[in-house]
Design a protein that fits this description.
Rossmann fold; seven-stranded mixed sheet
Amino acid sequence: MLAEKHVLVVFPHPDDEAFSSSGTIKLFTQSGVPVTYLCGTLGQMGRNFGNPMFANRETLPEVREKELIDACKVMGIDDLRMLGLHDKTLEFEDEEFLADIIEKALHELKPSLILTFYPKHGVHPDHDAMSNAVAIAVSRLPKSDRPTIYGKAILKNSVDLIGKPDVEIDIKSVAEEKLKAIKAHKSQTSGWVELMEQQLKDSSPEIEEWLYRETFWTFEV
């Protein structure tokens, strides 16, 4: 991993960071690199309420906020900024408005690296709305001041569309922390995590590959 002076993480929902890049984030924080996380929503329209169910539509925002805080503690993120946007509506927000929020953080923090979804390869419209806003915000900066963008592409055919990821990070040393960060979002991951842990015990190559390695695509603005 290259030395970074500040890393900005931008995702729309609690748990996006845990699944996509929590190992990479942990590697940065444990090496002393400051990390700021802009989380767009509280995922209040999520369909999962725990397994067995312990949340409901009214309590879910509060539950997911606490889960996000707990996950950030695992990852070592001290600067968590919840933007208060509404889940599943980001595609209808003015993208320039979203970009304004991110640009403000760029001027304040001057990050050298941004972790986000790869624009138009995030599966959910909220994913694409936030990552598109990142691209717009970065494009407003002079080229000499633009941070590198590592995008997480999760469409099934992303490799066919944009090629193989050009960034591969070995996170085996922090794999336990990655699992803990995912587990922190228990309203969304309980049941699924237990299945994954059993597959790890069975030495499933696919699960080990996912848990020990994080890949990104550098997005050029």
